[in-house]
Amino acid sequence: MRRSSVQSGWGAPKILQASEQEFYMADNSFPHEAFDDLLAANAEYQKTFKYSNLTGEALKGLAIVTCMDSRINPLSVVGMKSGDVKILRNAGARVTEDVLRTLVLATYLLNVNRILVLPHTDCKMAENDEADFHRIIDEKYGVNTSSLEFRTTKDQRAALASDLNRIRSYPLLRQGVSVAGGIYDVKTGAIEPFKG
Length: 196
Fold this sequence. Notes:
This protein is an alpha/beta fold. 34% of the residues lie in helices and 18% in strands. It has helices at 18-26, 32-47, 74-77, 97-109, 130-141, 156-168; strands at 3-6, 14-17, 62-67, 85-90, 114-118, 178-184, 191-193. β6 and β7 form a beta hairpin.
């Protein structure tokens, strides 16, 4: 009998029987019940779609690295529109290996010549530390996430300085790219330029 494992909390992996594996893997159809509202909204969007002439390059030469927080509308924050900017989002607006990889492509191939790293006030990633997040997820959902690095920080400004330095010193980034940081205030909409 075939068996496979899935991680089940802190202990040893749970061994799945073949019938259980089929349950987890059999239904890979599109889950309409969870996404029909989005498809309906997209059908309306298509009726007035006006971006078919965009090329995929950043027309204003800008890339923004910001948080996934839904209170941030990166285009509106800096007075841009679709096609103007490359937007990279993750938890905490951290400069990860994937962000650097994407910025290399953007600076060589997609017209990006300036990069703004934009974390924000009232960020959950600055309120807890790694151990807190791992503990909360494990206690609430029974999932051990200790193999992940969430890149939390209690000092947002120090993290921003480190991330800016990481971009500026990255040897594969195109030469001559301007790099800046700011902190977006979710209560006022203001960007505080970061000196560092």
